[in-house]
Design goal:
Length: 111
Protein backbone atom coordinates (compact mmCIF):
# COMPACT_ATOMS: atom_id res chain seq x y z
CA UNK A 1 0.00 0.00 0.00
CA UNK A 2 1.37 3.34 -0.98
CA UNK A 3 0.14 6.02 1.34
CA UNK A 4 -0.35 9.66 0.48
CA UNK A 5 2.57 10.40 2.80
CA UNK A 6 4.79 8.03 0.83
CA UNK A 7 3.70 9.73 -2.38
CA UNK A 8 4.47 13.17 -0.90
CA UNK A 9 7.90 12.00 0.24
CA UNK A 10 8.57 10.63 -3.25
CA UNK A 11 7.51 13.89 -4.89
CA UNK A 12 9.65 15.82 -2.41
CA UNK A 13 12.66 13.67 -3.29
CA UNK A 14 12.15 14.32 -6.99
CA UNK A 15 11.89 18.05 -6.41
CA UNK A 16 14.85 18.21 -4.04
CA UNK A 17 17.14 16.16 -6.30
CA UNK A 18 16.27 17.52 -9.74
CA UNK A 19 19.23 19.92 -9.86
CA UNK A 20 21.62 17.31 -8.45
CA UNK A 21 20.47 14.80 -11.09
CA UNK A 22 20.88 17.36 -13.86
CA UNK A 23 24.40 18.22 -12.69
CA UNK A 24 25.34 14.53 -12.49
CA UNK A 25 24.08 13.97 -16.04
CA UNK A 26 25.86 17.09 -17.30
CA UNK A 27 29.15 15.98 -15.72
CA UNK A 28 28.86 12.55 -17.30
CA UNK A 29 28.12 13.96 -20.76
CA UNK A 30 30.89 16.54 -20.43
CA UNK A 31 33.45 13.87 -19.57
CA UNK A 32 32.25 11.67 -22.43
CA UNK A 33 33.22 14.52 -24.76
CA UNK A 34 36.28 15.71 -22.83
CA UNK A 35 38.15 12.40 -22.50
CA UNK A 36 38.60 11.76 -26.25
CA UNK A 37 39.63 15.39 -26.72
CA UNK A 38 42.18 15.07 -23.90
CA UNK A 39 43.53 11.86 -25.40
CA UNK A 40 43.87 13.52 -28.80
CA UNK A 41 45.61 16.56 -27.28
CA UNK A 42 48.14 14.42 -25.42
CA UNK A 43 48.73 12.26 -28.50
CA UNK A 44 49.23 15.36 -30.66
CA UNK A 45 51.81 16.69 -28.21
CA UNK A 46 53.64 13.37 -28.31
CA UNK A 47 53.59 13.35 -32.10
CA UNK A 48 54.99 16.90 -32.16
CA UNK A 49 57.82 15.56 -30.01
CA UNK A 50 58.55 12.94 -32.67
CA UNK A 51 56.56 9.90 -31.57
CA UNK A 52 54.67 7.81 -34.12
CA UNK A 53 50.88 7.94 -34.03
CA UNK A 54 50.62 4.55 -32.33
CA UNK A 55 53.29 5.40 -29.76
CA UNK A 56 51.63 8.75 -29.11
CA UNK A 57 48.26 7.04 -28.55
CA UNK A 58 49.80 4.55 -26.13
CA UNK A 59 51.45 7.38 -24.20
CA UNK A 60 48.19 9.31 -24.15
CA UNK A 61 46.30 6.32 -22.73
CA UNK A 62 49.02 5.74 -20.14
CA UNK A 63 49.21 9.37 -19.02
CA UNK A 64 48.23 10.48 -15.54
CA UNK A 65 45.90 13.13 -16.97
CA UNK A 66 44.01 10.50 -18.99
CA UNK A 67 43.80 8.15 -16.01
CA UNK A 68 42.52 10.97 -13.79
CA UNK A 69 39.88 11.85 -16.39
CA UNK A 70 38.76 8.21 -16.54
CA UNK A 71 38.49 8.07 -12.75
CA UNK A 72 36.38 11.23 -12.89
CA UNK A 73 34.22 9.64 -15.56
CA UNK A 74 33.73 6.55 -13.42
CA UNK A 75 32.57 8.73 -10.51
CA UNK A 76 30.29 10.73 -12.82
CA UNK A 77 28.67 7.58 -14.20
CA UNK A 78 28.17 6.22 -10.69
CA UNK A 79 26.50 9.44 -9.50
CA UNK A 80 24.34 9.70 -12.64
CA UNK A 81 23.24 6.07 -12.48
CA UNK A 82 22.46 6.19 -8.75
CA UNK A 83 20.21 9.19 -9.25
CA UNK A 84 18.65 7.63 -12.35
CA UNK A 85 17.76 4.47 -10.42
CA UNK A 86 16.34 6.50 -7.55
CA UNK A 87 14.20 8.36 -10.10
CA UNK A 88 13.10 5.06 -11.65
CA UNK A 89 12.02 3.92 -8.19
CA UNK A 90 10.18 7.20 -7.60
CA UNK A 91 8.41 6.85 -10.94
CA UNK A 92 7.33 3.32 -9.97
CA UNK A 93 5.95 4.56 -6.64
CA UNK A 94 3.97 7.30 -8.39
CA UNK A 95 2.66 4.88 -11.01
CA UNK A 96 1.60 2.37 -8.35
CA UNK A 97 -0.12 5.12 -6.36
CA UNK A 98 -1.99 6.25 -9.49
CA UNK A 99 -3.13 2.69 -10.19
CA UNK A 100 -4.24 2.19 -6.58
CA UNK A 101 -6.12 5.49 -6.64
CA UNK A 102 -7.85 4.65 -9.93
CA UNK A 103 -8.83 1.22 -8.62
CA UNK A 104 -10.21 2.75 -5.43
CA UNK A 105 -12.25 5.28 -7.44
CA UNK A 106 -13.64 2.55 -9.68
CA UNK A 107 -14.76 0.67 -6.59
CA UNK A 108 -16.46 3.79 -5.24
CA UNK A 109 -13.86 4.48 -2.58
CA UNK A 110 -12.44 7.96 -2.20
CA UNK A 111 -8.70 8.27 -1.62
Amino acid sequence: MITDEKLEATLDWLRENATKAAKARAERIYLEEFIPALRAKIAAECMEAGDSASAADIKAKASDAYRTALEGYRAAVEADEALRWHKTRADAVISAWQTMSANARSMGKVT
